[in-house]
Write a structure and sequence with these properties.
The strands form 4 sheets. Strands 5-6-9 form a 3-stranded antiparallel sheet, with no helix packed on it. Strands 1-2 form a two-stranded antiparallel ribbon. A two-stranded antiparallel ribbon has the order 3-4. It folds into 2 domains: 54 residues, no CATH class; 63 residues, no CATH class. It has no helices and 9 strands. The protein is elongated and about 75 Å long. With 146 residues, the protein is an all-beta fold. The relative contact order is 0.16.
């Protein structure tokens, strides 16, 4: 893997625990999994809102590991290998159909960085997940050859 970047936004609106309506909060997400620091947030340009009579920091941006533990390793493995298979059929002299599948062989993420947001251990701490994340690509094509 040469690069692992992502962008998006985190949207939240609704009610607080005591029923206070919270205006929509939008926080941009700007991820670079190989360069971001742990617990990185845009707190220098943060804004503050009041929820249930408490000041809450809303960061300007969130990095890849804003809620991750510093285990000394990045989330993604840089190397993967895969199996590829394909089939092409010429229906006539010019029309063809094609299909390809690619299946990754290795886990792309490191378990010590991949935390479960649904399960806690006996002490009530967030546990690492034990799933295997692999690449899978299926491609279908139709075309003309001339």
């Amino acid at each position: 893997m040469l690069s692992s970047r992502g962008v998006g936004e985190l949207n939240y609106n609704g009610k607080s625990t005591v029923g206070q309506t919270i205006e929509p909060i939008i926080v941009p997400l700007k991820y670079d999994y190989f360069k971001d620091q742990f617990q990185q947030t845009g707190v220098t340009n943060a804004k503050f809102i009041t929820v249930d009579n408490r000041k809450v920091v809303v960061p300007a941006t969130l990095g890849a590991y804003y809620d991750a533990r510093d285990t000394g390793v990045p989330l993604f493995n840089r190397v993967d290998a895969g199996l590829h298979a394909g089939l092409g059929i010429f229906m006539s002299q010019g029309l063809y159909l094609g299909a390809r599948i690619q299946q990754g062989l290795f886990d792309l993420t490191r378990a010590e960085q991949e935390l479960s947001l649904h399960s806690l251990d006996a002490a009530g701490k967030i546990m690492p997940r034990s799933d295997k994340d692999q690449n899978l690509s299926i491609q279908l094509s139709i075309g003309f050859s001339f």
